[in-house]
Amino acid sequence: MAGGLRAGRLNAVAVRAAVLTRTAQKPALIRRLSDAQCTLLIFCDEPPGAGIQPVVAGPQKYLLPPPYDLDRLQARLYAGNWQAIHPPNAAFAPVDTFRLGGAELEAVMQGAGLTLIIDSFHDDIEWNVVEYPRPSGPLTAA
Question: Which end of the chain is less enclosed by CB atoms within 10 A, N or C?
Answer without folding.
Answer: C
